[in-house]
Design goal:
By secondary structure, the protein is mainly alpha-helical. It has one domain. The protein is about 75% helix and about 0% strand. It has 8 helices and no strands. The two termini are about 50 Å apart.
Length: about 250
């Protein structure tokens, strides 16, 4: 399911828990909701609320950390692409065809990364033909002096750094929140709102408060899931920087 679908389901279940609590509040007699019973409900809701709050905060921190890590890796890939092109430019006319290969390889690489970020398209890792052709071309360069040998080594080092970042992105492309974990969290939240409903008499303020609370919880779940898939959805990392990092070569 998409992040939006999960958020909507969360809102419905949490709101349903609140309405269920309000229903039993009207059905149960007053002697069944004595002060000691209310205290037990409050303590139970407080315990579950504390656990849910800790889990939500940890999930947000984890999702934000993963999102920032992948953003940094994309920036590193972009920087490596620029570094490779600059070194090849300094190498001279012998590397002109490699600079053209690099410009053909970059869009293919970016498309592959963003497609892997879509969890509905799980596949084995495979290097692009354009990338392999570029690496082979760099390895086959025959530098005639020390300066060119240094440039060739720098290009290969930048390629190795790019590949490392690329593989890191691939291994992290399907680190979704486990479904049972998410189900338990939503169950806790529904129980909390049901406990709230048991303790109050329904009126407009209560209904609006439950609505806002359920919406806030659903937004938190949506935010967590969206940050967990940074190459799709509303919060996806822009691919414009790596796609347009290199200026077109002149005729």
């Amino acid at each position: 399911m998409t992040a939006l679908t999960v958020a909507i389901v969360t809102f419905v279940l949490v709101s349903g828990g609140a309405w269920l609590g309000l229903y039993f509040r009207n059905v149960l007699s007053e002697d069944r909701l004595r002060d000691d019973v209310r205290d037990v409900i409050k303590l139970s809701a407080g315990l579950i609320g504390t656990m849910a709050a800790l889990v939500v905060s940890l999930l947000i921190a984890s999702a934000k950390g993963s999102y920032d890590t992948k953003t940094t890796q994309i920036k590193q890939i972009t920087a490596n692409i620029i570094q490779i092109d600059l070194d090849l430019e300094q190498y001279g006319p012998d590397a002109q065809n490699l600079r053209m290969m690099l410009r053909r390889a970059v869009p293919v690489l970016i498309n592959q990364i963003w497609n892997e970020g879509d969890r509905s398209k799980v596949s084995a890792y495979s290097a692009t033909a354009e990338g392999l052709e570029l690496v082979k071309g760099v390895q086959q360069l025959q530098p005639g002096n020390d300066s060119k040998r240094v440039l060739q080594a720098q290009v290969l080092s930048a390629v190795a750094s790019l590949v490392q970042a690329r593989l890191s992105l691939f291994t992290q492309s399907n680190n979704a929140i486990p479904t049972p974990f998410l189900i338990i969290l939503i169950f806790w939240l529904a129980i909390i709102f049901a406990c709230f409903g048991l303790l109050v008499r329904p009126n407009r303020v209560v209904i609006v408060t439950f609505f806002v609370g359920g919406l806030s919880v659903a937004c938190a779940i949506f935010l967590i899931l969206e940050m967990g898939q940074p190459f799709t959805g509303l919060m996806q990392i822009s691919s414009e920087a790596p796609r347009h990092a290199l200026a077109p070569l002149g005729p």
